[in-house]
Amino acid sequence: MEFIKVTDNKEPYVALIELNRPKELNALNRQLMEEVRDALQQLDKNDAVRVIIITGSEQAFAAGADIKQMADKTAIDMLMIDQISTWDQIRKTKKPIIAAVSGFALGGGCELAMTCDMIIASETAKFGQPEIKIGTMPGAGGTQRLTKAIGKAKAMELILTGRFLSAEEARSYGLVNKVVPKEMYLYEAFQLAKEIAQLSPVAVQLAKESVNRSFETHLDEGLTLERKNFYLTFASTDQKEGMQAFVEKRKPDFKGK
Ligand code: CAA
Questions:
Q1: From ligand 1's centre to the CA of 134, what distance in Å?
Q2: Would the pTM count as exceeding 0.70?
Q3: CA 185, 123, 152: angle at the middle one, nearest 5?
Q4: What are 177-213's pLDDT values in tens digits?
């Protein structure tokens, strides 16, 4: 891995993916996103990992897709390279992903954070879709996910002007879970990850799938999937253990089975 660093032994059950192109403010070139895809595929299969955190540097989560790599491409080049299809793995990852964001989360960087399941932000974080200022538009989900997260009026304003949102504004619009001082954002992301990692990975995975479905389908289909996933948790020993522990007034020990 040249542009990312993966650590899976800092805390039990929590893996960390660090974007590591500091000089370019973690601009997301093709290789970097292929590395993220490969890391997510491996971590999703690794039983010793239950929650994944993606972070950048203090200065930049990511300043967007790599403009220098795209600048001279034709539409047909873009279509044939189809680099954004690499990003589909983030959405397909079954384990929860937390984005720990400090500094710039712009363009593809904002889209990457929004594709994760939750966002913990440093007070220095700046979110935006400034593609319009370089003569293009969001291409990795920005027009869809930002609109669903913060509503049409604000999303339209950000996407059509390229303005940035401060961390606090992003929190108040519901884009971000929590804003913390800049020394704390990674710690806070780990706290959240550790809390989820203690729970049944089977139930967590099914619950994540069900919440995500609410963005992709109408209510009736979403409710049907939710109900099936709820019933399916009863096939796990984790459900038996969780309910038995409640009855016996003790802490459950979830095995992910
Ligand atoms: N692609 C390639 N290189 C980038 C980059 C990007 N998205 N963002 C920053 N860099 C590079 C700069 O070119 C610069 O490199 P050099 O030192 O070699 O010149 C280095 O990172 C530091 O950047 P700046 O000197 O510009 O730093 P700054 O603090 O003055 O400004 C910034 C920071 C406001 C983030 C500014 O760099 C910027 O506006 N970046 C581009 C943001 C953007 O437009 N993102 C959208 C990209 S398109 C996209 O993402 C499409 C999509 O939907 C998938």
A1: 11
A2: yes
A3: 105
A4: 999 999 999 999 999 999 999 999 999 999 999 999 9
